[in-house]
Description:
- The chain is about 10% helix and about 50% strand.
- By secondary structure, it is mostly beta strands.
- The chain has four domains: about 1-45; about 55-65 and about 240-320, conserved putative lor/sdh protein from methanococcus maripaludis s2 fold (Beta Barrel); about 70-80 and about 160-240, Beta Barrel (Elongation Factor Tu (Ef-tu), domain 3); about 80-155, CATH 2.40.50.100.
- The chain is rod-shaped, with a radius of gyration of 40 Å.
- About 20% of the residues are buried.
Amino acid sequence: MKTIFSHNKKINRILPILILIPVFAFSSCERIKEAYGKLIPGGKKEQAFEAPVFAVNTILAARGQIRDYIALSGDVQAGSTVDTYSDAAGRVSELYVTVGRWVNKGDPVAAVDPSRPGMTFRQSIAAAPISGTVVALPAQIGMTVSQAVPLARISGGGGLEIRLNVAERFISRISMNIPCEITLDAWPGEIFYGSVSEISPTVDPTSRTMEVRVNVSNEDSKLKSGMFAKVRVITERKDNIVKIPAAALINRFGEQYVFVIAKDPENSDVNIVKKRNIVPGILIDGVLEIQSGLNADEEIVVRGQTLLDDGSRVNIIERIAPLGDAPLAAN
């Protein structure tokens, strides 16, 4: 009798729990319905939550020019210079010119006294071998010189040039008359133009470099001999190509693609993205050439594409100005 009572007592404890299980299950199902949607006629599910919308920045693919180049640096020098020497060794007794002065061929540059103790000689006058501007004057009054020591350096007015040392690995990309862009710290923001005018026939075995000379236009006389210049030697130029910022390209699982902005076919007020595989070309300074797969003036995502997938909804926060072309270098 005691055993039967104990058994009934256990049943009484379990019974409320068994009654609550269906209630709890029913409540859970209702919550799941609320969270994931409810069935509507036809067996379709009506979504309670809209698809996520991603904030992005976009840009239009541009049609224009892209250029490859080699970045080098060198000093601005007079295009053609000639040194003036004395016919006799001795002491410099007088200088007739100063740096920056124009001289004609045959004008006196310096006087050298070849006299020695106990022997007096007539002064030797060193004359300018060409007409031009005195760009350097290594001789000073009182110094002793020989016939091998230059007294003055004269620029023949052949313009200015920049001498560059090109590494051996770039030699195949250098050719005569290719355009160059020159910038100087002395004139920030300005670009000067020139072209390759001379290529050394030999390579320095010590530095493994080849000397290249670039003539430079100096119509406003802003460039001075001795200035330090940064030079871009334009080795390749492609016109009328489609280009985009390199940041828009996505590389995943062996695919290269961009996301193109399109309209949601179910709601024209909503923007979505479409995955577009492309074939990239050369990449220069963050600008990428598109060989195929994308047309000019198509709007693509340039920022915020990390979490996107084909068909994702997007909200365009900012439209960035399309890429432009740099000024053309003189040919």
